[in-house]
Amino acid sequence: MHIGLIGGIGVAATVVYYQRLTAAAAARGVSRLELTIAHGEIQELIRNNLADLRAEQAQAFLPLATRLKDAGCDCLALTSLGAHFCLAELAALSPLPIVSAVAPLDAYFVERGIKRIGLLGTRVVMRTRLYGQLGHTDAIALDDEIEILGQTYQDVAVAGTCSAAQRERFLDAGRRMTAAGADAIVLAGTDLNLAFDGQDPGYTVIDALDVHVGVLADLAAGRKSLAEVAS
C-alpha cells in the first residue's frame, strides 16, 4: 500500500507524521514503507479555513492529490485536522481515496469508554466540535476562549515552535476542561505535540494524530483495507 500525505500544513505536523508513521509501520512488521509527501501551503489553508471557503481549498489540494496519484499512491491523507473542513469537497474531486483523521476518533473513544472529550485545535475544530462528526462522544470546548486558543494554535502551527507561555495556555485550558467533566483532552490539531510532548499535565491526553497514524500504519501492514477506512 503506497500512502500519500499532503503535508506542509504545517511543516512541524508533517515531520511528526513522518516520524510516527515510519515507527508505527516498523512496529507492525512493514519492512519497506511506500510513502510520498506533497507540500501544501499553510497560509492559503488558514485563509480558506477562516473564511469557510471549502470548495476553494479543495481546488487548492487537487493538484497535490493528482501529483500523489501520478507518483503511484493508492490513497492520501491530510496531515492537518484543520484541513478536514473541506474533506467532503476534496473527496468529490480527488483521484485517490482519502483516509480521514476524524472518522476513526469516535470509535476510538467508544472502545476506551471515553464519554466526554475536551477539544484543542483550530477555531473551526473547536467551534464545530470536530465538524459534528462525533456520533457517540460528547465534546466540549472553552467557548469563550475559542478565538484566543485558536489564534495561539495558528501561531504555533505557522512558527513550528511553541513558547513556554503558549504551552501553559494549552495546558491550563486542558485542566479547566477536565474540571468541567472531560474524561480526556484531545489534541485535535496536529501541531499540538509541540506543546504537549514530554509534558505530564495531570490529565489524560489523546493525540488525534496517533489515532490517524495507527490507521495508516494498519493499511501499510495490510491489517486494514481501503474499503474499511477511506472516503
TrEMBL record:
InterPro entries: Asp/Glu/hydantoin_racemase, Asp/Glu_race. SUPFAM superfamilies: Aspartate/glutamate racemase. It comes from Bosea lathyri. GO terms for molecular function: amino-acid racemase activity. This is Aspartate racemase. It comes from the Bacteria.
